[in-house]
């Protein structure tokens, strides 16, 4: 059920890339296949392989894996008001998570850092290319 949505996000990222725009997208791409679709679009589903060089090369995306213990994330969820993500779904999110790994282009940032430290670490990774 997420694949059409992820394909739409891929299309948006591709459009922005074609216009020379840098883009930041926030979504919970918990599974490796979801991240693969964001990079390669619908062809990732059909072949389970990145697109071949040519008309639509795979997008270059830096994935930021925000990592932290369940109790810290649960505490933050409890403080949210009017958010769609209920605390009851947190365990299933952890169960579903396939953390990024090589050869994916990613950084892992600890949620135990301050917000400023998190932002600076992400910004540094982006600027380093």
Task: Break the fold down into its secondary structure elements and pairings.
Blueprint: H1 3-18, H2 32-40, H3 43-47, E1 63-67, H4 70-79, H5 90-96, E2 106-110, H6 115-128
Parallel strand pairs: 1-2
EC number: 2.7.1.12
GO cellular component, one term: cytoplasm
GO molecular function: ATP binding; gluconokinase activity
Report on this model:
- The chain is mostly helical.
- The protein has a domain at 1-61.
- Helices cover 47% and strands 8% of the residues.
- It has 6 helices and 2 strands.
- Strands 1-2 form a two-stranded parallel sheet.
- Helix 1 (3-18) runs parallel beside helix 2 (32-40).
- The longest helix has 16 residues, at 3-18.
- Mean pLDDT is 89; it is low at 50-54.
- This is gluconokinase.
- Pathway: Carbohydrate acid metabolism; D-gluconate degradation.
């Amino acid at each position: 059920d997420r694949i059409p949505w992820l394909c739409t996000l891929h299309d948006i990222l591709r459009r922005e890339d074609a216009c020379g725009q840098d883009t930041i997208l926030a979504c919970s791409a918990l599974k490796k296949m979801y991240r693969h679709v964001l990079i390669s679009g619908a062809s990732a589903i059909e072949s389970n392989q990145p697109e071949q060089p040519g008309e639509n090369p795979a997008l270059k995306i830096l994935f930021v894996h925000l990592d932290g213990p369940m109790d810290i994330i649960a505490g933050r969820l409890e403080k949210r008001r009017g958010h769609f993500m209920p605390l009851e779904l947190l365990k299933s999110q952890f169960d579903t998570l396939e953390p990024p790994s090589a050869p994916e282009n990613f950084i892992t940032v600890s949620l135990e850092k301050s917000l400023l430290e998190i932002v600076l670490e992400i910004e540094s990774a982006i600027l380093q290319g």
